[in-house]
Amino acid sequence: MLDRVTEKEFYTEREARKTCNILFQAMDYIHKKKVAHRDIKPENVLLVEREDDTSIKIADFGFAKRVNKKNCLRTLCGTAQYVAPEVLDLHSPGYDQRADMWSVGVILYILLGGYPPFIESTQRDLFRKIRKGEYEFHEEYWGTVSTEAKDLISSLLMV
C-alpha cells in the first residue's frame, strides 16, 4: 500500500472508503481472534493486485500478541508515526488490540490528506504530539474532504 499511496499522493473519499472498509473488516477479524497486530502501517498492508486497492492482506505479525484480557499489553513496540498514545504512556494500565485502530486512523489520514498527521523532527517531539493527540486538518489539503470523513478520523485518533 505504501507504494500506491506514494504513487497516487492521496485518495478520493470514494477510493479511501473502499480500501478502508476492507481494512476495517481485516482488523475486525484479527481482533475477534483476540490478536493485537501492534504494527499496522501502509508497509504492512499488501495489495494483492496492482490495480485493485480493495484486495489487501495484512502482513508482518512480528509484533502481534494474543490479548487475553483488557489492557494486558505493556511492551513499547510499533512504528513511531503509527503508534497509539496508550502504547507510549508508561503510566497507563496497559493497552490491547484497540491500539491498532489508532494506526488505522493514521492510515486513513494519510490516504485522504496525502501526508501523516504527526510530523516532527525529533522522536521526542513526535511522541509528545501523539500522546496529546495534536494534529489538524489543514484547509489547503482537507478543504474538500467531508465532515463525516474527518469525524471518522477524529474518532480513531482519540487519546
What does this structure look like?
The chain is mainly α and 159 residues long. A hairpin with a 2-residue loop joins strand 2 (45-49) and strand 3 (52-58). It has helices spanning 2-8, 13-32, 85-88, 99-113, 123-132, 139-142, 147-156, and strands at 35-36, 45-49, 52-58, 65-66. The longest helix has 20 residues, at 13-32. The protein is globular.
List keywords for this structure.
4 strands; two-stranded antiparallel sheet; globular; mainly alpha; 7 helices; 10% strand; 159 residues
**Span from first to last CA?**
26 Å
Structural class: mainly alpha
Give a count of the beta strands, DSSP E runs of length 2 or more. 4
Estimate percent helicity.
40-55%
Which range does the strand content fall in? Answer: 5-15%
> What is the strand arrangement across the widest sheet?
1-4
Give the low-pLDDT segments. Answer: none
Describe the structure concisely for a colleague.
The chain is mainly alpha-helical and 159 residues long. It has seven helices and four strands. The chain has helices at 2-8, 13-32, 85-88, 99-113, 123-132, 139-142, 147-156, and strands at residues 35-36, 45-49, 52-58, 65-66.
